[in-house]
Amino acid sequence: MSVAIRLSRGGAKKRPYYKVVVSNSRAPRDGKYLEQVGTYNPLLAKDDENRVRLNEDRVRYWLGVGAQPTDRVARMLDKAGIMERAATNNPKKGEPGDKAKERAEEKAEKLREAEEAAKAAAEAPAEEAPAAEEAPAAEATEEQTEG
């Protein structure tokens, strides 16, 4: 049987309160557990001493017999000085997802096409400008002959 030290949720809706429990890793989150070894109240201030309460002797015993803490509990144990937790590095944390990358590429491509079209439009009227000046002069002569 693999044993885990994890959080078991209690409390009302939108008012969480957790027990730090030792349980069979296959048991449901809020189901039967072997022993309660502490509490965690996330609603209290971070510097409050009652936010995380652990029975250090029992936690050390369960760690000694092979219990594996979850990531969140390992953070609490590290802060309490019971167990050393290696720092993790996630280089992809700030990187956008695949769909966001695709959207950014499409947007950049559309921007490039718009710039190229604007550049081509800026060059084309410069060549057509003399022809455009001749057209109003021709219209003016037509109006004079009609009138």
From TrEMBL:
One of its GO terms (biological process) is translation. GO terms for molecular function: structural constituent of ribosome. The keyword Ribosomal protein applies. Residues 92-118 have a biased composition (Basic and acidic residues). Signal peptide: none annotated. Residues 82-147 are annotated as: Disordered. SUPFAM superfamilies: Ribosomal protein S16 (SSF54565). The keyword S-adenosyl-L-methionine does not apply. Keywords: Ribonucleoprotein, Ribosomal protein. Residues 119-139 have a biased composition (Low complexity). It holds the Pfam family Ribosomal_S16. It comes from the Bacteria. One of its GO terms (cellular component) is cytoplasm. HAMAP family: Ribosomal_bS16 (MF_00385). Belongs to the bacterial ribosomal protein bS16 family. This is Small ribosomal subunit protein bS16. It comes from Novosphingobium mathurense. The lineage of its organism: Bacteria, Pseudomonadati, Pseudomonadota, Alphaproteobacteria, Sphingomonadales. The gene is rpsP.
